[in-house]
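We read letters as residues; the fold follows as tokens. A sample entry reads:
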Amino acid sequence: MQMMSSERPACGWLHKLLVLLVKLHFAFAEPLQPLNGTGCTAKGPASYILVFTGHWSPQAFPKQYPLFRPPAQWSKLIAASHNRHFRLWEEGSSASPGVQSFAEVGVTVELMKAAKEARKKRTVGVMYRTAGIPNGIGHSSTEMLMVPRNPLLSLMVKMIPSPDWFVGVNSLNLCDGNRWKQEVTVDLQPYDAGTDSGFTFSSPNFPTSPPENITKITSQMPNHPANSFYYPRLKELPPIASIKITRQRRTPDRQTSISNHILPNSINPQRFSATPLDCEVSLWSSWGLCLGPCSRGGVRHRTRYILLRPANAGSPCPELEEQDECVPHNCIKKRQ
């Protein structure tokens, strides 16, 4: 009886140990859960080439197109790999001091400081930059190395000249579950940082007080004829820029890097249909003096002038001068 009682505790202990081992086996047999909250369980990093292309042409965007002092161009591109705990910028949110400084004058100092602090918290991986583009149409590129911990990509490029306008992407996920995406293309639209109230590309500095949230600029928003992107005949603006991100195969014999270079102009930009631009005229002036003989009556005139000439088969300008019959001021009407 004593032997039976001593064997029972031993069997119970072995049974508990066996249950524990089975639980551990199934726990480690399940797919590893990502620690970054983005669902990326890819094995190892991925190398990409990011190509930014500007489509800002006078054919696609004829209204007030900047031709000089300065002409239409793009700033340097600034990008960051990160996880879901970091935001470079976000539509509907207020611009950070770094975003404001970059969107208004193209300075990256504050953005780099914020990214450096975020790297200490391991929410940002690497910051990338490309050269600026001296024309509205052109290309720039950089090589990126993405890791599962920081699979999201955000970037900004300032439009020059502009009050506080930029293009970009927010938290673009390059990881799809347990694998990296092979190619991603995104058409870009202009955004207003909400810190300057200028309506046109060359508007003088006019701080918005209090600052507004970041908003997308559309063909009818801001809804004001003076706005450089106001095209009421269009449902949406054509893409003003685009990015193409392509995964690269890393080979041992690859020695040269192609980061931060401007692609040759031999690469043709994407073609978009020309945007029609309707003529815009001023209000009529006041009527002029009534001139003419009293016997036949006089004629008076009023005029208006062209504010914006039509382009790309837009509506032509109406008459700029109008006349009307009148009685000269120095004539006395006969009493009936």
Q: What stands out?
A: Residues 46-248 form a domain with the Immunoglobulin-like fold (CATH 2.60.40.2130).
